[in-house]
Write a structure and sequence with these properties.
By secondary structure, the protein is mainly α. The chain has helices at residues 3-11, 21-34, 49-64. It contains three helices and no strands.
Length: 99
């Protein structure tokens, strides 16, 4: 596992609606940790074992998760009333994320 490979994993997630952002933010936070190590890592250096464990569990989480499938309709049949938009912000400086 190197910074180059893990950047490819992090940036390979195509989530245009932001539905998977609770997961993708974990990837981005782990990527940030790779740049905060005491001894700077080159792009093809092996990452430290302590960080490797968190990457392995994160990748395993993605592989074991069910598929995210959304119907193409934005309005279900027989709906009553208008749509409601709900947003969630984490309010933390570490992530700067909203879903």
């Amino acid at each position: 596992m190197s910074k180059r490979n893990l950047l490819g994993v992090t940036n390979s997630t195509g989530d245009f609606l932001g539905v998977a952002s609770p997961y993708t933010i974990k990837l981005k936070l782990n990527m940030k940790k790779l740049f905060e190590v005491d001894i700077p890592l080159a792009w093809d250096d092996d990452i430290p074992d302590g960080l490797k464990d968190s990457w392995i569990s994160l990748i395993a989480e993605a592989l074991l998760a069910d598929n995210l499938i959304f119907p193409r309709s934005t309005r279900p049949k027989h709906v009553v009333g208008g749509p409601m938009i709900v947003g969630f912000g984490d309010g933390a400086f570490a992530a700067f994320a909203a879903a």
